[in-house]
UniProtKB/TrEMBL annotation, chains A, B, C, D:
Keyword NADP: yes
Swiss-Prot/TrEMBL keywords: Amino-acid biosynthesis, Aromatic amino acid biosynthesis, FAD, Flavoprotein, FMN, Lyase, NADP
Binding site for NADP(+): R47
Entry's Gene Ontology cellular component terms: cytosol
Reaction equation(s) it catalyzes: 5-O-(1-carboxyvinyl)-3-phosphoshikimate = chorismate + phosphate
Gene this chain is encoded by: aroC
Protein name from the UniProt record: Chorismate synthase
Function: This reaction introduces a second double bond into the aromatic ring system.
Length: 360, 360, 360, 360
């Protein structure tokens, strides 16, 4: 189960790679917000493959339709069903993979778990599942922006061994991120990343990378002790994205070797509220947002589906060689950017509604 | 809210640092399992402060009592209430902290969220909250061990800048971990860690560290697509532990720079099942356990409460200097070991019951 | 919120009366069950208006499509999205009702709750919402039948003041129920009910009724103490159907005046299991099924939308007379029969999976 | 499972009849509300057996202690653990019932469900489980009263065949209800009820009854379409109380035979809001409160445990005669009054927080 996320803004996604459609039902969006497909489509288009020379060319428009929950362009407070019809249903493409589970992919574990697996292998592990998340995330993001001015921007900070230098967060924006097809906002690093990706495509190999995310203007007080700490929900959200292997927030893994006297963020007065001088906490203290920027990183492993032949075994345990057919992304992180943003929005939205429910 | 964790093995913890008691209600434990306090106390005792020269001396026995849910030493299938009475209730100790929020602690965010905060500051952010988790985790662990032979071992792999070398996982055990008070199973590293901790104690400063965790004999098929992927729930569970800043699984952050051809885990035949030759996946593929060892890491930040004076502001925004009174752990990671194990057990238990519910 | 029902077999319905479509996402159906639209359509057709001279004529086919979760006619264990496209979208029909809330309908309360209401008035209170339930219920019913042989039959036992005599439950079947358009299996009562309904249609008035439900072959042990007692979940499920006002199980309201010595169901040996001689318990004891027939009743109020002029006030509080336009059912209970069956199936399915999760 | 109730005000009860203690953890109570044991004890005392000549004499004080979640007499917003220690632990009393399941009691179904049952038989089906509900309900009630002026009053309207006449709701109060030990506010009926109960006690037999409940000043807008309609949650809540067999709201079962033109509640202007002239809806329309009084009834079956010998079979299916030892209530409805009130408060509280979360 667990195709649902969130308690008060609950998103239930559906759809496999090659069924009739994919999408989501969003329950818990407050009524009266202006909402049409035009609010959702841009993020879906950013997620779509085939946007550039470095991503796969599966030719689908990913056109979203709102089936319920709005009338006259406004939300009714009722479930919003978002559907993207699959136009490219070709289960036949996956012939060889039916009998040979792809290494480091979901084919084997789905078969073990369910006793059956979709022709396309992983089924729900398909990247197309994220369409529902991104569509739902766009709704959450709009509400958060209108209500609190929240801004969420993610970008690619590393591809393979190439990492960009620490950026100035104050001028980070989606425009800057989208200025390069790698979605790395540091032009020189971006060029090197692109070159690496093209080399790997030629070599029929792949690599991983890191997506960073920044959430501005998040009100203080979001996050629920103790199991729904804001960083805990963000961690769950990010590790639920296919191909992710790690998450850290604020100083993260690098912060462990600092001394407390250096790592602690001293409080300072910032107008009506307290702020912090530094932000090693990443905007969260004790699991609750403190009003500072929320900053975190997500690690993506190298893409599992590669064209290079791999020595493995088939479902029966007999030796086999697998070479993935067709074109595959050598690196998914540029396309993962809007997914990370969407999941961040879903977490913040749910926590914002939780706080409204209980605040004095 | 969210003082509950799990859907089918649900743990609801309660208690602040200085109230009458802390503990948990465990709902969903299958009936008929032998269970007494003796199954729970050992892990609680491993968690307890005051065990060695390098941890704080708060003199409480942390004696757990089972108040309900068992009869004649067997579980009834009904809620198990676990209580540890607080014997050391001294809210008065925290006088200065009432008016000055501790930097990088939960005092400020609790005040903002609730409009009130416990005398002890963070309230539920207190380390004593983890007593309920550890007690509940011991129950989950026992069931998993009896049913599947699951073994969970965590250890300290880094303290500050000192990291132990990659260990041989096959001989990792709690005995080896507990052989040194740092809970680092590499003696030479352990000695250096201990020395660092003692230096920091003398300097009234603190540092962070890393806890690694290994889960053996986890059956394949656990983990629920898409939002309750096994790594997603583990990430939530670990980031819900106080002072954590990061989580990664398998190859984790280090794996991003590998090529797919090198990172993929080829399948091999292992008797009746398929296994993998390498384990960059960390035992999870597509969010579902594959039968290999589950291995992950958790990053802990430097302890926020330090004796060194810190320049900060009080709740009103006026400049203030804070120096924490009393003795404080310079490094929590040795004591975090059983908490990490407990949270891993809670995740695996919940996922195991989920799988029982839905399997064909 | 709460457009979702169930914890382990979770149905999330969506759709208003006049949006693009209505339906449901079903998460938690075990994998490997044969399932096509043909398994679902019959119950939807039984629910559909326009089946006979005594129900409304809204000319929609209610043709269900499975959008996800199956492949090759088998369930994958993943979310099943069921969609019925609305072909009759005429929000304009409801002009007068926009300004005058219909007495005893949901128009007013939706406006108060959401600050907005759908052109069709109640929005989610529309009878069309039940399409998603019935479709999902058909899936649950199939699984329960295949796994345990469960049979669920509901029927009309009263319309207005006309009540049928106590039937012989052993020969109750859907065929017998459907033999008459009132879905009352007692021919003489059925004729009188039909006559009453036709009189009320002519008089532009309406009435209520009672639906009884019988669940056979339900395994003992289903139902979760204490808040998810089987009767508690059934009560919630039934009272969630539009226009319901009451629920009772077994001896129900009539049983309160009996003496315990007369009301208690003595145990008897029934082959391998214990059974009871009488069934005042209605198949449930202590909230848990005991293996006997589950029998309960659901009360439906008179239909609120009537053609007769009603003296009321508009949203501004000014006196107004409302006469509903168009044709309206004078009595919904015949069409409620498959909805009651569906909700019973959803409860039993969820409880069956709960029991699988936790049984020893 | 399901020893928890509510999503945003979540009550998790624990405890069997003869374990160390019973109680509840309440998660989700807003911070800053004055709360001490004195707010909770009165309802617990009303629930307690041994209050009068017509109820059982189990000599326990049922003294509640708040173990967590408050400080200085105010709620902290964190889980409130409420404990009543059992002083009367005598599992030995139930010797004969170990081998002979009591007819219409939970002994048999618990054994089937769990493969084990408590010495006291039903375990969680014990009336003592309701202590946790009543304690939690008192907290909810206080918050609802302070925030909205909500008043909740329940009373006994029928015992056996004796039903009181329709009362004037406007002057119903707990004082009037408690004026007679039967908790029936109609003195003449109350006397007859008492006489019946005493006759049944002498005859070692029992009977059932009806509890009515009235909730005043409930704000309009509470209740969540479609599965958490207010009446649906109330129905679940009431049918989760031991020994209940039915629930109806507003006109209920009696309303089914009315015509719509007679049953509909016309709107009228009531100051700033709309009200209704009649209240057949029972304060709920479309599943959402409309601001009128909420009125419902709960049917309780005759007490199952009786002193009269009953012919039944033991767990092995062999004929046996069972005569319950000790003193048993011939009628539980007077003591059920505060339980019904508590469950109503829990539902309203949870729905109130839901509405706060989502309102515009």
């Amino acid at each position: 189960m667990a195709s649902s996320f969130g308690d008060l803004f609950r998103v239930s996604t559906f759809g496999e790679s090659h069924c009739r459609g994919v999408g989501a039902v969003v329950d818990g969006c407050p009524a009266g917000m202006a909402l049409t497909e035009a609010d959702i489509q841009p993020q879906l288009s950013r997620r779509r493959p085939g946007q550039s020379s470095i991503t796969t060319h599966r030719d689908e428009e990913d056109r979203v339709e709102i089936f319920s929950g709005t009338e006259g362009g406004k939300t009714l407070g009722t479930p919003i069903m978002l559907l993207v019809q699959n136009t490219d249903q070709r289960p036949g493409d996956y012939g060889e993979m039916r009998s040979i589970p792809r290494p480091s992919h979901a084919d084997y574990t789905y078969q073990i778990k369910y006793g059956i697996h979709a022709a396309s292998g992983g089924g729900r592990a398909s990247a197309r599942e994220s369409i529902g998340r991104v569509a739902a995330g766009a709704i959450a993001e709009k509400w958060l922006r209108l209500r609190y001015g929240v801004e969420i921007v993610a970008w690619v900070s590393a591809v393979g061994h190439i990492a960009m230098p620490q950026p100035d967060l104050s001028c980070m924006s989606r425009d800057r991120v989208d200025a390069h097809i790698t979605r790395c906002p540091h032009p020189e690093s971006a060029s090197r990343m692109q070159q690496l990706i093209e080399e790997l495509r030629a070599a029929k190999d792949s690599t991983g990378g890191i997506v960073n995310c920044l959430c501005r203007q998040v009100p203080a007080g979001l996050g629920e002790p103790v199991f729904d700490k804001l960083e805990a929900r963000l961690a769950q959200a990010m590790l639920s994205i296919p191909a992710t292997k790690g998450f850290d927030i604020g100083s993260g893994f690098a912060g462990i070797s600092l001394r407390g006297s250096r790592h602690n963020d001293p409080f300072v007065s910032k107008g009506q509220r307290l702020g912090t001088l530094t932000n090693n906490s990443g905007g969260v203290q004790g699991g609750i947002s403190n009003g500072e920027d929320i900053v975190f990183r997500v690690a993506f492993k190298p893409v599992a589906t590669i064209g290079l032949p791999q020595e493995t075994v088939d479902f029966d345990g007999s030796p086999a060689t697998l070479s993935a057919k067709g074109r595959h992304d050598p690196c998914v992180v540029p396309r993962a950017v809007p997914i990370v943003e969407a999941m961040a929005a879903l977490v913040l939205m749910d926590m914002a509604l939780q706080q409204r429910a209980h605040e004095q």
